[in-house]
């Protein structure tokens, strides 16, 4: 029966089929000489010498030089070739020939294509900026014409690179039996955490969905459901006031595992990071060092230190206080770093650094310096108060060697550490110590469970309210909540937090206790997270997880600081897509269908 | 410098690490006998014979039988084992031993684990339904406790299967140089197509983003941007009144290619479908038959025919009209099918079929039947009007053989075809001709470009407004728009549309013309889709694409009719997530921040 049917169906015939290209613009080589080929692509540039025309034809894969000449090309094609302009879309047929003057900078640089047929597939207006690696277009115009910006190698290659990273991640995790599971985008708004984007429900007047800030609760429910190794590469949403390099929608590599301890999670994601660095950069990373949050703050003033370079903090209270220098004597913390080889800095250069730390963005009141001369002597801005023996102790505490410059800040501990951390990173950049092709991962562990929020006068979860406190610190929850450490960890790469996670609470009682400490009444906790706490009553396994920020991970693996080129259609700092002009007004009828009215305050 | 840093960092020490399991519950075999192992999982069931207790321990990977007995197990562990109840989460240490009575139905059925240590990791309330393949829980309760439903094999395996399909799709397309590119979720509302979900923008009062119904325009912009092979597995959103088996958020495998013709796209996605069937079911599909839309409608009354079985339509106007039977004489179409081997149906069975087609959901006014007896004679419900010679012609037209039952409907052509199609599918189901393990793909091509919409009294795009008309039909756009065929195609599998796509318009003029025919003013077209038409001016390549519905594709590949088990957290028919209770009300403060007020009509 089936065959008879097929027999009849196959009677239908198609028109003859035209091939747009036999090769792409990046693959022809000397070995292809004399082949008759077809290419399609965009006119990168055209040089018309009258009797001869050269055209660089570009597609996603590269550039191939086309040649038209009076002798070998028909008058008609020659005429059409003269009408070509930048970014025209064309198709050519022709013969591969060896070039007379070869271009070693181009993969196809040994050949060119002598064109016999030319078809203009689409004309193009002159683009508003040049489609070159170094373009003449500013950020705004490139955002508006993002589809043209994507034609440029830096953006195109970033998007291809991102694909490579995500494929690599997916294959790695799938091979380890992780199952990618899609969690819903239309969920429920919760007051904890950042501000939600909401979605009015037409079918449920007056009610709203929320877009997920992360699939946190769903992945925990999957653990309750027994799916013991979950991952998802997933969009998340946060309606926050945008800072540079922050997007209202961003992508996470989201993972969760059951029947594990922190050690298992660190192992799996060390493995993933190792795999990425190996497969993408052919770099082997042996050790993933680990550091507690406290240690990171003390040594680098920062919970995401860049350990590609040293300049560890040296605390100088013991050796710099109790002398005649009141500024230090009155300070909670005196702390310094040794800038390698910077003893040769001129007075002007040092003043520049002092001005830099005094800028409002950093906020130091002043800075003391000590030059460690190559002859073993010291010269400082506080020679009046400290002798050579004193300064030698400073050098010991900061690890300074002959030729280094010690820079010292003082004041309230947290603030001073943050200031010195900013200076350290600035020096790292200026001195070229933050090499884009070097990769130094680091686990920061034992984060505090809670942090005090001045605005709301209560503790907030530092990670999120599902993070488990360390058992040995539980007794501090009532007496000194700020001291309780969490089973929480961040993966830091080159001074950026690329991932973070925790071992979760998996019993209703601890979860309820946690909500209590976050200022929820029992009713509020039940209303907001009742479904999770109920789930915990039906046999929740011990579980934990981690999420990587894919946008940043990709940028850093790509050796870049900004994420924008790694996102196909990013939004600007006002959350607008200037290309499609979104957000935009909607019809009154649409509003009414959603049971909404505008309520715009002047 | 770096090493010194690392040296210090590595001083930090971790607490000793406890392993939750050495094996999973699906992997122990006779070869493992005498091994000391650790397992963790859920108590599937427990049989307490007093001196001996058996527990089935379950995890994602399977079930392993545990045994506790008075002789070999400590009193303490024995006591704890007696307290175990269904769905408790436990960890056991013990020795693998060979079973006395083996269970051939269980992968681990030749062994059991003699338990020496038992830890209760979490207790569990009795679940509201049984965690068995055949559960006692109804749909509603299973949706509310979806995390428990996921523990059941049918749901768990569907989710694992979905992961396998998506990984397979991603690897196949990536190997063909397709690049997965994430397009934005916060885009702009457009009036064309289905209703959008919208997202109020706090930062732009009175303005809204929309969630994408598909990444259509973005993927076309990627083509303009030169990314000539794009794909994305992506969530899409439609705020439609829900029908059974339709979700407000659904997942698409979305693809687009440049410098291609329809033939290239069909080839690539035939290849993908072939790859899926081979890798998942080890089925080789040679031919992907093709059929025009017109042909599909004539032969099956349906643009997504199930060709696993015949019962092609036979048009009977020529042989059944111009006799004495007024019902047929007055009908636009008389059309029949031959149900194989159904001549033996009793009068009651045939009446049942007649009642079935007369139900309001089908809507036929009546049905004529002809039994093709094995002796070559015919017996019909219209013997009064037709003789044996007449009925023989009916049999020829419907392909009926001796022993078949011809069923004939009549009336307005489109309506009658739809009714007969419904009957054909019903018979296919009843007669077991729609075999879940047989896969019959089919391309349906040459869809109409436009379809008339009674409600709005205008033509709508049948596919979407970016689909290109066939060149040879362009002249009909003004005179007979309904006759214009599009370069549009659907991939049908077992009677379900699993994918659809088209070759797109790639020049501004044709796109503007298309919008005009859809009733847009030039201003409206510019306002809604100006960014796309502008893009077409900067060198758009010829392009086209296709999107598969992943939810349905997975269900069909999994041999299922409904998609719900293949979605981790589906919504119910009112668009609600009954587990988390979303959508829900939001705070007045949140509304005000969004410059919105509720406007609920009574």
Automatic annotation (TrEMBL), chains A, B:
<comment type="subunit">
    <text>Homodimer.</text>
</comment>
<feature type="binding site">
    <location>
        <position position="192"/>
    </location>
    <ligand>
        <name>L-aspartate</name>
    </ligand>
</feature>
<dbReference type="InterPro" id="IPR045864">
    <property type="entry name" value="aa-tRNA-synth_II/BPL/LPL"/>
</dbReference>
<dbReference type="GO" id="GO:0003676">
    <property type="term" value="F:nucleic acid binding"/>
</dbReference>
<dbReference type="InterPro" id="IPR004524">
    <property type="entry name" value="Asp-tRNA-ligase_1"/>
</dbReference>
<dbReference type="InterPro" id="IPR006195">
    <property type="entry name" value="aa-tRNA-synth_II"/>
</dbReference>
<keyword id="KW-0436">Ligase</keyword>
<feature type="binding site">
    <location>
        <position position="504"/>
    </location>
    <ligand>
        <name>L-aspartate</name>
    </ligand>
</feature>
<feature type="binding site">
    <location>
        <position position="247"/>
    </location>
    <ligand>
        <name>ATP</name>
    </ligand>
</feature>
<keyword id="KW-0030">Aminoacyl-tRNA synthetase</keyword>
<dbReference type="InterPro" id="IPR002312">
    <property type="entry name" value="Asp/Asn-tRNA-synth_IIb"/>
</dbReference>
<protein>
    <recommendedName>
        <fullName>Aspartate--tRNA ligase</fullName>
        <ecNumber>6.1.1.12</ecNumber>
    </recommendedName>
</protein>
<dbReference type="InterPro" id="IPR004364">
    <property type="entry name" value="Aa-tRNA-synt_II"/>
</dbReference>
<keyword id="KW-0963">Cytoplasm</keyword>
<dbReference type="InterPro" id="IPR004115">
    <property type="entry name" value="GAD-like_sf"/>
</dbReference>
<comment type="similarity">
    <text>Belongs to the class-II aminoacyl-tRNA synthetase family. Type 1 subfamily.</text>
</comment>
<feature type="binding site">
    <location>
        <begin position="549"/>
        <end position="552"/>
    </location>
    <ligand>
        <name>ATP</name>
    </ligand>
</feature>
<dbReference type="GO" id="GO:0005737">
    <property type="term" value="C:cytoplasm"/>
</dbReference>
<feature type="binding site">
    <location>
        <position position="497"/>
    </location>
    <ligand>
        <name>ATP</name>
    </ligand>
</feature>
<comment type="function">
    <text>Catalyzes the attachment of L-aspartate to tRNA(Asp) in a two-step reaction: L-aspartate is first activated by ATP to form Asp-AMP and then transferred to the acceptor end of tRNA(Asp).</text>
</comment>
<dbReference type="InterPro" id="IPR029351">
    <property type="entry name" value="GAD_dom"/>
</dbReference>
<dbReference type="Pfam" id="PF01336">
    <property type="entry name" value="tRNA_anti-codon"/>
</dbReference>
<feature type="domain" description="Aminoacyl-transfer RNA synthetases class-II family profile">
    <location>
        <begin position="162"/>
        <end position="570"/>
    </location>
</feature>
<feature type="binding site">
    <location>
        <begin position="238"/>
        <end position="240"/>
    </location>
    <ligand>
        <name>ATP</name>
    </ligand>
</feature>
<dbReference type="Pfam" id="PF00152">
    <property type="entry name" value="tRNA-synt_2"/>
</dbReference>
<dbReference type="InterPro" id="IPR047090">
    <property type="entry name" value="AspRS_core"/>
</dbReference>
<feature type="binding site">
    <location>
        <position position="463"/>
    </location>
    <ligand>
        <name>L-aspartate</name>
    </ligand>
</feature>
<dbReference type="InterPro" id="IPR004365">
    <property type="entry name" value="NA-bd_OB_tRNA"/>
</dbReference>
<keyword id="KW-0648">Protein biosynthesis</keyword>
<dbReference type="GO" id="GO:0005524">
    <property type="term" value="F:ATP binding"/>
</dbReference>
<dbReference type="Pfam" id="PF02938">
    <property type="entry name" value="GAD"/>
</dbReference>
<dbReference type="InterPro" id="IPR047089">
    <property type="entry name" value="Asp-tRNA-ligase_1_N"/>
</dbReference>
<feature type="region of interest" description="Aspartate">
    <location>
        <begin position="216"/>
        <end position="219"/>
    </location>
</feature>
<keyword id="KW-0067">ATP-binding</keyword>
<dbReference type="InterPro" id="IPR012340">
    <property type="entry name" value="NA-bd_OB-fold"/>
</dbReference>
<dbReference type="GO" id="GO:0006422">
    <property type="term" value="P:aspartyl-tRNA aminoacylation"/>
</dbReference>
<feature type="binding site">
    <location>
        <position position="238"/>
    </location>
    <ligand>
        <name>L-aspartate</name>
    </ligand>
</feature>
<dbReference type="GO" id="GO:0004815">
    <property type="term" value="F:aspartate-tRNA ligase activity"/>
</dbReference>
<keyword id="KW-0547">Nucleotide-binding</keyword>
């Amino acid at each position: 029966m089936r065959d008879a049917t097929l027999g009849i169906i196959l009677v239908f015939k198609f028109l003859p089929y035209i091939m747009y290209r036999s090769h792409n613009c990046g693959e022809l080589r000397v070995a292809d000489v004399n082949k008759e080929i077809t290419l399609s692509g965009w006119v990168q540039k055209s040089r018309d010498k009258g009797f001869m025309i050269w055209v660089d034809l570009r597609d996603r894969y590269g550039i191939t030089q086309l040649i038209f000449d009076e002798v070998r090309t028909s008058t008609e094609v020659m005429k059409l070739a003269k009408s070509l302009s930048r970014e025209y879309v064309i198709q050519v047929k022709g013969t591969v020939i060896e070039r007379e003057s070869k271009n070693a900078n181009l993969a196809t640089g040994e050949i060119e294509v002598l064109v016999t047929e030319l078809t203009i597939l689409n004309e193009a207006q002159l683009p508003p900026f040049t489609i070159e690696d170094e373009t003449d277009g500013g950020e705004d115009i490139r955002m508006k014409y993002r589809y043209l910006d994507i034609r440029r190698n830096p953006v195109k290659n970033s998007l291809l690179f991102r694909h490579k990273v995500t494929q690599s991640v997916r294959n790695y995790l799938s091979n380890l039996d992780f199952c990618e599971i899609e969690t819903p985008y239309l969920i429920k708004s919760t007051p904890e955490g950042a501000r939600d984007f909401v979605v009015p429900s037409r079918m449920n007047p007056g009610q709203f969905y929320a877009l997920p800030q992360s699939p946190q609760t769903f992945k925990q429910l999957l653990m309750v459901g027994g799916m013991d190794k979950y991952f998802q590469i997933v969009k998340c949403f946060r309606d926050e006031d945008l800072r540079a390099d922050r997007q209202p929608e961003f992508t996470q590599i989201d993972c969760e595992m059951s029947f594990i301890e922190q050690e298992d999670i660190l192992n799996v994601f060390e493995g993933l990071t190792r795999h990425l660095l190996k497969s993408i950069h052919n770099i082997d990373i042996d050790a993933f060092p680990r550091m507690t949050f406290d240690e990171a703050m003390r040594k680098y003033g920062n919970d995401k230190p860049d350990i590609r370079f040293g300049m560890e903090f040296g605390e100088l209270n013991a050796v710099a206080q109790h002398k005649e220098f009141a500024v230090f004597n009155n300070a909670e913390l005196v702390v310094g770093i040794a800038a390698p080889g910077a003893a040769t800095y001129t007075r002007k250069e040092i003043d520049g650094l002092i001005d830099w730390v005094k800028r409002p963005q950093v906020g130091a009141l002043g800075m003391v310096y000590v030059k460690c001369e190559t002859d073993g002597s010291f010269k400082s801005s506080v020679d009046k108060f400290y002798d050579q023996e004193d300064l030698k102790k400073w050098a010991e505490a900061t690890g300074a060697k002959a030729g280094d410059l010690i820079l010292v800040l003082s004041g309230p501990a947290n603030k001073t550490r943050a200031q010195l951390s900013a200076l350290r990173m600035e020096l790292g950049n200026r001195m070229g110590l933050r090499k884009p092709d070097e990769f130094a991962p680091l686990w920061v562990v034992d984060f505090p469970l809670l942090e005090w929020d001045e605005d709301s006068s209560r503790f907030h979860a530092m990670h999120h309210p599902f993070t488990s406190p360390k058992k040995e610190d539980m007794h501090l929850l009532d007496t000194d909540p700020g001291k309780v450490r969490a089973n929480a960890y961040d993966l830091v790469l080159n001074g950026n937090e690329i991932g973070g996670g925790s071992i979760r609470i998996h019993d209703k009682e601890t979860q309820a206790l946690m909500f209590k400490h976050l200022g929820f009444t029992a009713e509020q906790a039940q209303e907001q997270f009742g479904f999770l706490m109920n789930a915990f009553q039906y046999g929740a396994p011990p579980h934990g997880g981690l999420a990587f920020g894919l946008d940043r991970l990709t940028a850093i693996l790509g050796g870049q600081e900004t994420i924008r080129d790694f996102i196909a259609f990013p939004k600007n700092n006002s959350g607008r897509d200037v290309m499609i002009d979104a957000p935009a007004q909607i019809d009154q009828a649409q509003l009414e269908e959603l049971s909404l009215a505008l309520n715009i305050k002047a």
